[in-house]
Write a structure and sequence with these properties.
The protein has about 260 residues and is α/β, with parallel strands linked by helices. It has a single domain, classed as Glycoside hydrolase/deacetylase (TIM Barrel, Alpha-Beta Barrel), CATH 3.20.20.370. About 35% of the residues lie in helices and about 15% in strands. It has 7 helices and 11 strands. The strands form 2 sheets. Strands 1, 2, 3, 4, 5, 6, 7, 10 and 11 form a 9-stranded mixed beta sheet that branches. The protein has a two-stranded antiparallel sheet with strand order 8-9. A hairpin with a 2-residue loop joins strand 6 and strand 7 (about 170). Helix 1 (about 10-20) runs parallel beside helix 5 (about 190-205). It starts with 8 loop residues before the first helix and ends with a helix.
C-alpha cells in the first residue's frame, strides 16, 4: 500500500492570505484525557516547549495523580482545563457515552463539576482555567445554562461555534481538528483530512463565513497517538510557529475579552 505523501501547501497558502491581509490567524491547542505524568505526556510537553505553543490540558479531576501537578511545575506553556469529573458513562446502554447528560439529577452533576473545579484549582493554581471540556464532547443542552453555578465560565466542544456565548456568562472556545480516526481503533486520520479541517475553518473566518474571533482549535489525545499522529502534530506546531500569518495563543489572554 502506497503511503500518503503529506502536502502542506494548502495550509501555507491560507496563512499567506492572512499575511497579505495584514493579519495573523489565531490557533489554540487542546489535549484531552490528561490525569498523570506518563511518557506520552512528557513527549507532548516537550513539543509545547520546543515550539513555544501553549497546550491546554483537559484534565480529569477524579483521576488526577499525585505526580500531575509536579510535572507541570516548570513548564512555560501549559494551561489546565476541566474534563468533566471522572470521565464515567452514566447513560443507559445504547444511548452513547454521557457523563454530562440528563440521566442524573442536575444537582448531582453540578456538584461533581464544582468538586472537580476545586480539585484542579488546588492542584495547579493559576494554570487552571475554568473551562469545561465535556467527556466524549457531549453535554445536555439543558445543563449548559447552569454550569456557571459550578464556577465554570467557558465551554469547549467541537466545530464552528454558532455564537460566542453558549449561555449567559458561558463563553465558547471549540476545537475544529481532531487528527485521530476513532472508529475501529485510534489511528491517524491522515494529513489531507486533518489539514482540511484546519484550512476550512481558517478560510471561513477570513472570508466572514465563521466567527472571525474564534481561534481555530487543534484537539489531540496524547494517550492515543500513533507515530503518524505525533509526526503530524509536530509538523503542524512547527509550520504555525514559523509563519508570520499565524500564532498559537493562550486562552487566558482572550477569556477576559470574551467575558
Amino acid at each position: 500500500m502506497e503511503q500518503e505523501k503529506p502536502d502542506w501547501s494548502d495550509l501555507i497558502a491560507e496563512l499567506d492570505r492572512w499575511t497579505a491581509a495584514g493579519q495573523a490567524a489565531s490557533l489554540w491547542w487542546r489535549d484531552d484525557d490528561a490525569a498523570a505524568m506518563t511518557p506520552a505526556l512528557a513527549r507532548l510537553l516537550a513539543l509545547s516547549r520546543e515550539h513555544r505553543a501553549t497546550v491546554h490540558l483537559a484534565a480529569i479531576p477524579a483521576r488526577l495523580a499525585d505526580n500531575f501537578a509536579a510535572a507541570l511545575a516548570d513548564e512555560p506553556h501549559v494551561r489546565v482545563l476541566q474534563h468533566g469529573f471522572a470521565h464515567i458513562d452514566h447513560a443507559p446502554p445504547g444511548a452513547g457515552s454521557w457523563e454530562l447528560g440528563d440521566h442524573r439529577p442536575r444537582e448531582a452533576v453540578l456538584a461533581e463539576l464544582a468538586a472537580g473545579r476545586h480539585i484542579l484549582s488546588a492542584a495547579v493554581g493559576a494554570r487552571f482555567l475554568p473551562v469545561l471540556v465535556p467527556p466524549w464532547t457531549r453535554i445536555a443542552p439543558s445543563l449548559i445554562p447552569h454550569i456557571g453555578q459550578s464556577g465554570l465560565i467557558a465551554l469547549s466542544l467541537e466545530g464552528r461555534r454558532q455564537r460566542r456565548f453558549a449561555a449567559p456568562g458561558i463563553a465558547t472556545f471549540n476545537a475544529h481538528c481532531d487528527p485521530i480516526r476513532w472508529k475501529g481503533g485510534a489511528r491517524f486520520t491522515g494529513t489531507a483530512r486533518a489539514l482540511d479541517e484546519i484550512v476550512r475553518h481558517l478560510a471561513a473566518r477570513r472570508q466572514g463565513e465563521a466567527d472571525a474571533d474564534e481561534p481555530t482549535g487543534l484537539c489531540t489525545h496524547h494517550l492515543d497517538h500513533d507515530e503518524a499522529t505525533w509526526e503530524f502534530v509536530e509538523r503542524l506546531l512547527a509550520e504555525v510557529t514559523a509563519h508570520p500569518g499565524a500564532r498559537w495563543i493562550d486562552l487566558a489572554g482572550i477569556m477576559t475579552v470574551a467575558a
